[in-house]
TrEMBL record:
This is 3-dehydroquinate dehydratase. Pathway: Metabolic intermediate biosynthesis; chorismate biosynthesis; chorismate from D-erythrose 4-phosphate and phosphoenolpyruvate: step 3/7. Keywords: Amino-acid biosynthesis, Aromatic amino acid biosynthesis, Lyase. Substrate binds at residues 79, 85, 92, 106-107, 116. Pfam families: DHquinase_II (PF01220). Transmembrane segments: none annotated. The active site is at 23 (proton acceptor), 105 (proton donor). The keyword Amino-acid biosynthesis applies. The record marks 18 as: Transition state stabilizer. Homododecamer. Catalyzes a trans-dehydration via an enolate intermediate. It catalyses: 3-dehydroquinate = 3-dehydroshikimate + H2O.
Length: 150
C-alpha cells in the first residue's frame, strides 16, 4: 500500500473551536479520520501530523522527500496555515526535498484579508485546493493519488 503524509501547520490543532464561522466545527481529530477514510477508499495509507513550529514542518518535508525517493510515500497534502504567507523556508524545503505537495486551505484565502492572498508555498506546490472546507483535504488526497499514479 502507498502512503501519503497529511501535514498541518500552526493553529490547526484549534479546529472546531477557532473561528467556527470560517473553519467550521470539525476538530483536528475528525479531520484526520476524514483523511484516513479518504485514503482507505483509494488504497492509500494516510499518516497525519500537526505542528505549530516551522522547523518541525520543515523536518517533516525533508523526511517526506527522502521517503518519496525511496518509493514509500506518494507525497504530502499540506496546510501550512499562516506560514503560507510568510515562510520562504517552507518553499525552500519543498523545492530542496523534491517532495510532491498539494497545498490545501479550508477557507478561501483569496476572499479574506489581503495578506492571505499570497502563498510562498503555492509556487512550490504541485497543486492547490482552496475554499472547500475540510472536504478540500479529500480532494487533495484524491488529486495527489491521481497525479502520482497516473
Amino acid at each position: 500500500m502507498s502512503k501519503i503524509l497529511v501535514l498541518n501547520g500552526p493553529n490547526l490543532n484549534l479546529l472546531g473551536q477557532r473561528e467556527p464561522a470560517v473553519y467550521g466545527s470539525t476538530t483536528l481529530a475528525d479531520l484526520e479520520q476524514l483523511c484516513r477514510d479518504a485514503g482507505a477508499r483509494l488504497g492509500v495509507e494516510v499518516e497525519c501530523r500537526q505542528s505549530n513550529h516551522e522547523g518541525v514542518l520543515i523536518d517533516a518535508l525533508h523526511e517526506a522527500g527522502r521517503a518519496v525517493k525511496a518509493g514509500t510515500l506518494l507525497g504530502v497534502v499540506f496546510n501550512p496555515a499562516a506560514y503560507s504567507h510568510s515562510s520562504v523556508a517552507l518553499f525552500d524545503a519543498i523545492k530542496g526535498a523534491e517532495v510532491p505537495v498539494i497545498e490545501v486551505h479550508i477557507s478561501n484565502v483569496h476572499a479574506r484579508e489581503a495578506f492571505r492572498h499570497h502563498s510562498y508555498v503555492s509556487a512550490a506546490a504541485a497543486g492547490i485546493v482552496v475554499g472547500f472546507g475540510v472536504d478540500g483535504y479529500r480532494l487533495a488526497i484524491e488529486g495527489l493519488v491521481r497525479q502520482r499514479r497516473g
